[in-house]
Structure formats: C-alpha cells, structure tokens
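As noted in the main text, all predictions were made from sequence alone. Below is one such record, for Integral membrane protein.
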Amino acid sequence: MRTAGTARYALGGLGVLLIGIGVRLVVAEPDPAGVLLWLAGALVLHDGILAPLVLAVGLLLVGRRHRGTLRGALVVAGGLVLVTLPLLVRPGEPPNPSALPLPYGRNLAIVLAVVAAGTTARVLVRRRRERAQRDDGDAEGAGGAGDGGAGGGRGDGDD
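Prediction:
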C-alpha cells in the first residue's frame, strides 16, 4: 500500500512538472492564443466526436466478443489519421523540400490497410478458437457419458 501511494505522488509530481513545462512553452510561443485555440479544438474533436464515434461503432457493429478489438483498431487508425492529417492538408509546397519527401496519403492508406488486416486476422483467429472449443465440448459431451463427468477434458476455458 505504501509503494502504491509513493508511486501515485511521484507520478502526480511528474504530471505537474510536465504541465508547467507545457505552460512555459505555450507562453513562449509567438501566438499563444492560436496554440490554445488548437488545443481546445483538439479536445472538442476528441471528446465530442471521436470518442463517442468509436464507442457507438463498437456498440452497433459488432458483438460483445469483438467489440474491444474493433475499438482498439479504431483508436489506432484515428491516432494515425490525426498525426498524419497536418501533413496531408498543408497548403502549398513545404519551405524545406526534405521536410515532406514522402507520399503521406499513400503511406497512410497502406498503414490503415495493415491495421484493418491485423484486426480482421485477430477476429478470425478468435472465431476459429471459439469454434474449436465448442466442437471439442460437443464431442466430449457425446462420447464421455461413461466417465461420470470427471477427468481432465477440454472445454473448461483454460486453453
């Protein structure tokens, strides 16, 4: 209990220190109002649009078993899009030609396809495992009537 309390205070202190550094950096900006406006917009976008959208999609599109997987994929995809978005919508040529040397739109599409493929693979593997456990349980129930229900059969959920 003492260790948890110490860790909590240490992390709280680190958080306060990082907030102080952030405030100092915002004040040192030539346009602190613009930075604060951007931060407020990011907060509204995340808490008002993205988080409810991810929760709603998870609730409406998939069953309980795969809801976490889909939400995780949506969070990763959303984070990737938000990080890449400023590079995609920047008007004009960058001041330094080496700053944006790659086709970020194509690369974002590739990474999102990898996230979708990984999510699909996870769902399919999970379905296959559940089906195999269910089939093993059916076979055990039909063939194991003479053992009195005792024994180390499969289907106990610890696989």
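Residues 146-159 have pLDDT under 50 and may be disordered. The radius of gyration is 25 Å. These features were considered when defining construct boundaries for the mutagenesis experiments described in Section 2.9.
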